[in-house]
Write a structure and sequence with these properties.
Layout (H helix, E strand, L loop, with lengths): L10 E6 L6 H17 L4 E6 L4 E4 L16 E3 L6 E4 L3 E7 L9 H17 L6 E3 L2 E7 L13 E12 L2 E9 L19 E2 L11 H16 L3 E4 L2
Parallel strand pairs: 1-2, 1-12, 3-4, 9-11
Antiparallel strand pairs: 2-6, 3-5, 6-10, 7-8, 8-9, 9-10
Helix pairs in contact: 2-3
Length: 233
């Protein structure tokens, strides 16, 4: 196990940035932190940020899914997945954890990220669900008209995209708290054309970013089994 994490007592530092963090800066800082974790010179970290409006293209992004390329800046990303929107009102949690020290099970790790999002949403009595063949976390919308085939409408409320380098993760997840949902119109989010997007506020919940941060911090140790966390700057 790397130095800086006592055996059986992992330490995860929580970092929160105010304002809007430029995407290239976030990537550079994530990569540097991931390397330091791998070298044993830094604790694992969860970094909470908001970005200015932008689109990111994951490693599986298809050009035809960028439907309005001039609308916002577009950044190629080394995370998995397709096109994703980031912007104000969306909580992005960058997850820099030593997956090598956590069992080297990538499938389990991604499952834990999904469970963490679902547990966070449950703090607000929102039932988030997985869907086979659809990345991210979804909510059923009985308040909306059903699909043409009579099935209930389902909207995406959270996106997940992870990258591993030498068994340390970076990138992470985003939860729609109160973003401008029309900003998603410039892409086919995650390549899925038949479903929409929603947010906690769109669901009628008066939830703030601070509320979501509290829920993320409360549910993280439940899902990941970490007893020691450390506040950061």
């Amino acid at each position: 196990m790397p130095e800086g994490r006592a055996r059986g007592d992992p330490v995860v530092t929580w970092l929160t940035s105010g304002g809007l963090t430029p995407y290239p800066q976030a990537v550079a800082e994530m990569e540097a932190r991931a390397e330091a974790i791998r070298a044993g010179t830094a604790d694992e970290a969860i970094w909470l940020v908001e970005h200015p409006p932008l689109y990111t293209a994951g490693t599986s992004a298809r050009p035809e899914d960028l439907t309005d390329p001039g609308r916002f800046p577009v950044f190629a990303s080394k995370r998995g997945g397709q096109y994703t929107y980031h912007g104000p009102g969306q909580r992005v949690a960058y997850v820099m954890l030593d997956v090598g020290a956590r069992g080297r099970d990538v499938r389990r790790f991604v499952h834990q990220i999904e469970d963490w999002v679902i547990a966070t949403l449950a703090e607000f009595n929102v039932r988030g669900e997985r869907r086979e063949g659809r990345v991210g976390v979804w909510v059923v919308r009985p308040d909306q008209p059903p699909n043409a085939d009579g099935s209930p409408r389902e909207d995406k409320i959270a996106a997940i995209g992870i990258r591993l380098r030498r068994w340390v993760s970076f990138h992470g997840l985003s939860i729609n708290v109160e973003p401008d949902l029309t900003h998603f119109d410039g892409i086919v989010p995650c390549g899925i054309r038949d479903h929409g997007v929603t947010s906690l506020v769109d669901l009628g919940l008066p939830v703030t970013m601070a509320d979501v941060d509290v829920a993320l911090k409360r549910t993280f140790p439940i899902v990941f089994g970490d007893g020691a966390t450390r506040p950061g700057s």
